[in-house]
């Protein structure tokens, strides 16, 4: 897949969305199928959530553009995105969300950056065909950028597990410049 747009074909800065670029009030609603009890998890809580076969997860709040727009921007990482966007470096997104169009619209209309849609991977969006746990899907998305020909990749994510997986990818591709940065706020 060749890249013909006006941004770098070698260098890309890749950002997670939730708790890296923005903090929202969106929660994952967890329902215990045996007791009917429900509780909610923030994206940060979900990073350490232990899967349970009796739990049914509902991610509907992450489908709301209004909740995303109402979120608090994490300026530190938005500044890094903006600086590199203005330099002409490619900007990519790897998020656990399930709607590539929602992220594209939010970035373009609310945050003010026209990020090429093919560089936005909402890893739970069926259009991408990623499989496995979230970290595995994020790894597959990251490897898609390598397949596109990027040789200098910097990845920002708040989840330690995602950072570890990208560091493993770095070892698998010693000829590439890969940096994984744990986003803190």
Write the layout of secondary structure elements.
Blueprint: E1 11-15, E2 22-23, E3 28-32, E4 38-41, H1 43-47, E5 55-58, H2 65-69, E6 72-73, H3 75-87, E7 90-95, H4 100-111, E8 120-122, H5 134-147, E9 152-157, H6 160-172, E10 177-182
Parallel strand pairs: 1-7, 1-9, 7-8, 9-10
Antiparallel strand pairs: 2-6, 3-4, 3-5
The class by helix and strand makeup works out as alpha/beta
First-to-last CA distance: 35 Å
Radius of gyration: 16 Å
The total count of strands amounts to 10
List the secondary-structure elements in sequence, H or E.
Answer: EEEEHEHEHEHEHEHE
What does this structure look like?
By secondary structure, the chain is α/β, with parallel strands linked by helices. The chain has 6 helices and 10 strands. The strands form 3 sheets. The protein has a 5-stranded parallel sheet, sandwiched between helices. It has a 3-stranded antiparallel sheet with strand order 4-3-5. A two-stranded antiparallel ribbon has the order 2-6. A hairpin with a 5-residue loop joins strand 3 and strand 4. Helix 5 runs parallel beside helix 6. The longest helix is centred in the last third of the chain and has 14 residues, at 134-147. The protein is globular. The chain starts with 10 loop residues before the first strand and ends with a strand. 31% of the residues are buried.
Features:
three-stranded antiparallel sheet; alpha/beta; five-stranded parallel sheet; 185 residues; 6 helices; 34% helix
